Amino acid sequence: MRNRLVRPSAAVRRARRRRSETTAIPEVAGPGLALRAKDKDLVLHIGLHKTASSFVQGLLAASRDDLRAQGVLYPTTGIVDKSDTGTREGAGSGQALLSRPGRQHALKSQLFAEIPDGVSTVLLSSEEFGRVAATPTPARLVARFSAFRSIRVVLVLRRQDDWIESYYKQVVDQFRNFETRSFVQFLHEAGPRLLDFHARFAPWRELVGPENFHVLSYDDLPDGVAICRRLLEIAGMEGPVLDGLGSIEVPRYDSVRAIDTVGLRILNAYRLEGRDTRTRTACSIYDAAPSGDIELLTPELRDEIKTAWDPVNERIEDEWFSTPVPGFRFGSAPPARAATPPSGPDMVDYLDRVIALCEDARTTTAADEVSEDGEDE
Fold first, then answer.
1. CA neighbor of 214 nearest in space, from 231, 195, 190, 192
2. Are 110 and 30 in contact (CB under 8 A)?
3. pLDDT single digits (tens) 47-79
4. Could you tell me if 278 and 175 are in contact, meaning their C-beta atoms sit under 8 angstroms apart?
5. In sequence order, which residues have a C-beta less than 8 Å from that of residue 41 and are 6 or more positions away?
6. What are phi and psi of 217, to 5 degrees?
7. What is the pLDDT of residue 176?
């Protein structure tokens, strides 16, 4: 029997159109563009996720002109605009396009062409550079930017118990992750490769050398402004620009609440492919949550994480930091429980409402696909 040509579904066709619309990078003409970088230093801020990276990127974007006047370029090349696609204000991932697989000749040409005369340092920031088991690897990313005179890497670490709770909330909330595991299951299955920060980031240190590998502790700095200030100091900045960071208004990308993860896991089980529909439904799920909250990170889980990873953090403190970081070493007391759990009847009503919202979203998606198939005939 002959093979029959199967027509892609409407969802697949939309995804293909979306990729062609959002990932096409115009070629930049002109020979020798890489020569613009040969006497410039690159500072590469690689995350972690959930260490005020989006807030820092907002500060950098708001200060772009002032930074450039002082010899530091925070480029627009590679920026991913999430203003119209995120479920909450403040979402961002910096120059994430530059972290993606592929040869990226056109994108690098854009970056080099953006470097003006008078700039001595280029600063790139994206937590996507430090994603676990990322492709391309750290070695390939460093090679990607080898045209620069030097590369300094800046990493912000956070104690593993608070970090993985916050990261789990982000994973559950993100489009197309379809994460349905409970926090406990996620911790035990994904935790070993996520939480060994020494194993994850030692390759970066080996690639650029200890003198060019700078590590900050989220737990031992007061806020995102302080993190941004240290990042810019590493980039060579000083003076009024640093002092003015605290007066810049930037949206804060706060995590969803623990109870939101319950509704979002149900939403993810529906595997909605349409971003707009998924975003609208997620926002409705936030609004549907009852008063109170649940506890993801129990005292028992905190103790388990501390027992497993404090020896690793002790090693990191000894090898990567020049001063003690007691917060990163689980030195601070865990936060007090902020809210009481919702009542049983309230939870039942909430789950019923979430399922109804997801069913409506699935029906809408199916109707849209039928309509689009008719238009494509």
1. 231
2. no
3. 999 999 999 999 999 999 999 999 999 999 999
4. yes
5. 120, 121, 122, 148, 149, 150, 151, 152, 236
6. -105, 115
7. 84
Which letter does DSSP use for residue 41 in this model?
A: E
pLDDT tens readout for residues 14-33: 444 443 333 343 444 344 78
- CB neighbours (10 Å) of residue 183? 21
Domain spans in the chain, listed from the N-terminal domain onward: 37-257+293-339
Match 């090349």 to its residue by tokens: 77
Give the other-Cβ count within 10 Å of 33's Cβ.
18
**Residues sharing a CB contact under 8 Å with residue 92, sequence separation 6 or more, in sequence order:** 53, 54, 57, 58, 80, 82, 253
Place of tokens 């020569």: 35
Tell me the per-residue pLDDT of 343-356, one tens digit each, with 9 for 90 and over. Answer: 999 999 999 999 99
Say which amino acid occupies 314.
E
Does residue 290 have a cis bond before it (omega within 30 degrees)? Answer: no
SS3 81: coil
Residue where the block lists tokens 């088991």: 133
Q: Could you give the CA distance from residue 226 to residue 247 in angstroms, rounded to a whole number?
A: 12
Task: Enter the tokens of residue 119.
Answer: 């700039």
**Which band of pLDDT confidence, cut at 50, 70 and 90, is reported for residue 266?**
very high
Q: How far apart are the first and last CA of the chain?
A: 26
Residues 254-263 pLDDT 10s: 889 999 999 9
Topology of the domain covering 37-257+293-339 = Rossmann fold (3.40.50)
Q: Length of the chain, please?
A: 377
Q: What is the DSSP letter of 159?
A: -
What confidence score (pLDDT) does residue 133 get?
A: 83
Token pair 């080898």: residue: 146
Calpha distance 91→81 (Å, rounded):
9
Q: Do residues 274 and 11 lie in contact, with contact meaning Cβ atoms separated by under 8 Å?
A: yes
